[in-house]
């Protein structure tokens, strides 16, 4: 049997924690920041946990 390949785009975007949660970056922090308030850009900093239904799909793409 051939091995399953990890989805290349997914492995760059998501991390799986030791307990099995899927982490993602928040969107909206890449460009057009000049008109966004500092309060908004601070809120978009850091990682967020994926919703349970989406997390199952991501784990499948990552082969976990």
Topology summary:
Layout: H1 8-13, E1 14-16, E2 22-25, H2 38-43, E3 47-49, H3 52-62
Antiparallel strand pairs: 1-2, 2-3
Short description:
The protein has 64 residues and is an alpha+beta fold. The protein contains three helices and three strands, in the order αββαβα.
Q: Order of strands across the widest beta sheet?
A: 1-2-3
What general form does the structure show? elongated
Q: How would you sum up the major sheet?
A: 3 strands, antiparallel
Share of helical residues: 25-40%
Poorly predicted tracts of residues: none
Q: How much strand content do the residues show? A: 15-25%
Supply the helix-strand structural class. Answer: alpha+beta
| Helix count, DSSP H or I runs of 4 or more residues | 3
Radius of gyration: 15 Å
Count of strand segments? 3
Rounded mean pLDDT score: 96
Question: How far apart, in Å, are the first and last alpha carbons?
Answer: 18 Å
Structural notes for this entry:
The protein is of the alpha+beta class and 64 residues long. Helices cover 36% and strands 16% of the residues. It contains 3 helices and 3 strands. The protein has a 3-stranded antiparallel beta sheet. A hairpin with a 5-residue loop joins strand 1 and strand 2. It starts with 7 loop residues before the first helix and ends with a helix. The mean pLDDT is 96.
């Amino acid at each position: 049997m051939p091995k399953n390949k990890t989805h290349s785009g997914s492995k760059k975007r998501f991390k799986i924690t030791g307990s099995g949660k899927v982490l993602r970056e928040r969107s909206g922090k890449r460009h057009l920041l000049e008109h966004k308030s500092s309060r908004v850009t601070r809120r978009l900093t850091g990682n967020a946990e994926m919703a349970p239904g989406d997390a199952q799909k991501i784990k499948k793409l990552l082969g976990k």
